[in-house]
Amino acid sequence: MMKVGFVGLGIMGKPMALNVIKAGYPVVAYDRNTAPMQAIVQAGGEEGKSGKDVAQRTDVVITMLPNSPNVESALFDEDGIAEGLSEGKAVIDMSSIAPLASRDFDKRLSEMGVDFMDAPVSGGEPKAVDGTIAVMVGGKEDVFKKFEPLLKTMASTVTLVGEVGAGNITKLANQMIVAINIAGISEAYSLAKKAGVDPERVYQAIRSGLAGSVVMDQKSEKIFSGNFDPGFRIELHIKDLQNVMDTSHSINVSAPFSSLAMEIMQSLKAHGHEKEDHSAIAEWYEMINDMKLQAD
Ligand code: NAD
Known about the structure:
The chain is of the alpha/beta class.
């Protein structure tokens, strides 16, 4: 059985690594924060001393880190993953990062004879824990086939979308749709509330019609309770929408609604709300309209 390295054991990475261990793969894991390591070792995983050490002791290294600069540093800094790689090994980056960065990492690793795929995920912590995240993959078909069973230990769906970079393009599309959807829902509920119509009843009336969505179902409850514990943090969604803007401008695409959604979240960050769930976009509408969407 192939030996799996795992670098990045945060909210998502730790439960994902535990699912790989549960499926019977030998795992060597590393995070510069040692706190999550106890759970990994208790489950039967081994502790790596650095990215280099993890790569030396395994056949494929999975990374789950915040953004492009973190992945670059984990791969190419001193004692990083690249120093422990050799021809025939592979890296699967499951972080949500800039697609052009994925292509750059692929180019640098392929010069060493190392396969690379970008495989960002959707679903959040609960789905990472129960192994039902959705994985969107960019890479070569034969590399995908080789690692599909490994990815399936963490996910309910694993889809090859195209060449390297296509996984993160898909993730950006997902993040655009989610952000714009939350803003649309909040704006509509604000209209209802100020017109004297209960937004919860509006939700019940329209959720099975054309305006209904998974986003509406998952986020309305948070909006009506006023409980914005994350979930998916505003600061991470700003990071994704910044990657949307950088990518879209680099290929001459205009994305006005994504830009507006990002600025709404930036305004929330300026007010100290960056650690809250992205459904807190509703709080911004409460601020600009001087009202509350919570049930009276
Ligand atoms: P997190 O901040 O909880 O975890 C990141 C981990 O990486 C931390 O434990 C940190 O110590 C470690 N780290 C950073 N740089 C490192 C380095 N150079 N070497 C070793 N370890 C390093 O983040 P998360 O919520 O687990 O998210 C990870 C990725 O998954 C992000 O790209 C995020 O956008 C994406 N994502 C998150 C969610 C979610 O709901 N949290 C959902 C889907 C996708």
